[in-house]
Structure formats: structure tokens, C-alpha cells
């Protein structure tokens, strides 16, 4: 688990303590949080949540933080469950995920993820390398009781993936040079290329408070890294002009207008972040 916000983290830990299938080990990686949050995290270690905290001396970003946490595992694990700190999981979710992975011969699985209004946030998706986008199937739709069949997916979000040991080791974990966002798309693409089967288990439910572990949603940091890393990632699958003017042009336009669609707060900071992200993304690919 990567760590950022103690309020959300405490709720996440509380839900983990109620799992019917208990994990062998719970690891929290503190990505150089504020002194106040770090002090609260130390307090949480004294409570009955049963987790180990690894304190980083600088912010390594999401992917690197997760990788360091897993490297610190003492148990002989067969599966690793990566959770954003703003996730809440249902008691039966881990057991259902692991059972489905065994019966379906899958190496990467995600629970059905709902938002705080019980609407679908993730129920499978796809990564389109030509358009430079990752899609969530059914996002924003009303949740209906799921059936028992698993959902095949070519994209698994990084919010709550359960990954087999062999897949994690072969893929080398998350890519670390992206710092924040698009690591899950990269991992999904590499998993597909390696022949791993990815599924969503509808009966395994969880809830995601999107943006709760960063700056509350769509802020300058989000816009910068989403813009930059989209170009950095998908440039590896085609020319950069295709992302800017070709089939990926519409997605580029959507991201360029995101600052104006995300509210007036910090508007110009978000505009600058978007432009910087695009420029830096192109620069990295040269």
C-alpha cells in the first residue's frame, strides 16, 4: 500500500481488519509525508490494525513507493494486493479475488470498484495506444447487483490490483520514471504483451474516494502528470505527432481543456501545469 493521507488510510486499514481472508502481511509505505501526517501514522501503528510502516526519506512517486513496499515484505507471498490509501474493501473481497484468479488461471485481478455514491468507477477497461487513452467501462453508471461471471479486461486500474508473484516478478512491478499516473496503463500493456490474463471480479466489491490521497481531485499536480505521462507512455507505441494531431488529437484536446472544465480554483496554475506537462512529455521523448 502506498500512503499519503491518514484520514483515508485509517478507513482503509479498518476495512482490511474486517477481511474474511486475512492477508499475511500489511505494508504501508510513507512517501515522505508531512510531519503532522507522519506523527499520526506513528500513532496508527500502535493501534490494532496489524500493519508495518516503511518510512521513505523522499517522495519517490506512486510506482516506486509501491515497489519499495513490496521489496520490504518479510512473508513468502504468492499474491500482492496493491491498494490506494483511499480505498475501502468489502470483507469478502480478497477471498473472492484469490479464488477467481485460481479458477480462471489469471495473474492480475481487480475488484469491482464503486465511487462514494455507489456508482461504477471501474468494472474493466481498455488501453488504446493509438488514441493514447485508458477507458473505464460503465464509469458513472448506477451499480446493479453483479452476476457471478468474471469480466475479461485489457486494462486494470492501479487502485486495487491483486497480482500473482510470478507476474509481479516478471514484469518488474510498476514503472518508476512516471512518478504519478499512467503506471497502471503501462503495467497492463506489458502484462498483455507477456500473455497474462487480467480479470475483474464483480462480486468482490470496493469503494474508491478518487483523489482523496492527493490534492482532492483535479489539481495542478494531477493535470501535469496526466498530460506529461500520457505522451511519455504512448510515444513508445507510435510517433508523438499521432498523439498531438492524429488519432490521439481529440484526447490531447480534452486534456488541454481540462483546466477550464475542472472549476475556477487554481485555474491559471492548472493551465500552466497542462502546458508544462505537454512540453515536458515531448521533451522526454526527443
UniProtKB/TrEMBL annotation:
<protein>
    <submittedName>
        <fullName>GT2 family glycosyltransferase</fullName>
    </submittedName>
</protein>
<feature type="domain" description="Glycosyltransferase 2-like">
    <location>
        <begin position="3"/>
        <end position="122"/>
    </location>
</feature>
<dbReference type="InterPro" id="IPR001173">
    <property type="entry name" value="Glyco_trans_2-like"/>
</dbReference>
<comment type="pathway">
    <text>Cell wall biogenesis; cell wall polysaccharide biosynthesis.</text>
</comment>
<keyword id="KW-0808">Transferase</keyword>
<dbReference type="InterPro" id="IPR029044">
    <property type="entry name" value="Nucleotide-diphossugar_trans"/>
</dbReference>
<dbReference type="Pfam" id="PF00535">
    <property type="entry name" value="Glycos_transf_2"/>
</dbReference>
<keyword id="KW-0328">Glycosyltransferase</keyword>
<comment type="similarity">
    <text>Belongs to the glycosyltransferase 2 family.</text>
</comment>
